[in-house]
Amino acid sequence: MTTSTADREQLASFLMTLRSDDGIGARVMTVVEAVPRRLFVGPDIADIFADQSLPLECGQTMPSARAAVRLAGALRVQPESRILEIGTGSGYVTALLARLGLHVTTLDRYKTLLTRAAERLKACGITNVTYIQEDGRDGYAGQAPFDRIVVHASFEALPRAFVEQMASQGILVTAIGAPGERQRIVRHQKLGSRFEEELLFDARLQPLERGVATLL
Question: Domain for residue 212, yes or no?
């Protein structure tokens, strides 16, 4: 895929802004540079790294580049990490995680989003991803435990199902808080029989919807 001069300039500027963000290490920066964001946002978006969410098919949205990268950084993915992602969306975060870890299992309730994300990742040469049409409300016990879990949605409290699907020393990142109220992205780390929780940054996400979409 050809990268325009404007896209390259925007990428260089974006990488400079990331240097001031906690948790964005050298591996994450390298992956951001390697994954062509233009492929995920479409040709009609002028500034592909603008700090705003963007519309997707099926009435969904994708996070801004900064939010996406901060989520990837918050997971502290290791090369051997097995990752569960709930909410594939465009596949941009999926691509970042797949470059960082061993394997990604990504779930979405919309077949259209899964299919198009798979096409984009294939164009990037990324093959270590399994795509599953599920709503993700109960995680994905069939391939648990996972070293890393990211949920692109909000919960008022962390569901027990996700806790049980985390490996020892595992990390889960999601938004905690009621819809319409202040939410925070929280990193949960499983340490034996206890959890450490760290508040990271503000978010505004919706709860997961129930069931898979039958038409889209």
Answer: no
- Its domain, for residue 115, covers 5-203
Cα 75 from Cα 65, distance rounded (Å): 16
Q: Is residue 50 part of a domain?
A: yes
| Count of H-run helices and E-run strands, the chain | 7, 9
State the amino acid at position 79 in one-letter form: P
Beta strands per DSSP E along 8-71: 54-55, 61-62
Neighbours of 184 (CB within 10 A): 16
DSSP-derived letter for residue 65 is H
**pTM to 2 decimals?**
0.94
Mean pLDDT by 10 residues, the chain (216 residues): 79 91 88 96 90 92 94 96 97 98 98 97 97 95 96 92 93 92 93 87 89 81
Residues 6+ apart with CB under 8 A from 19: none
Could you tell me if 149 and 139 are in contact, meaning their C-beta atoms sit under 8 angstroms apart? yes
The number of distinct structural domains making up the chain is 1
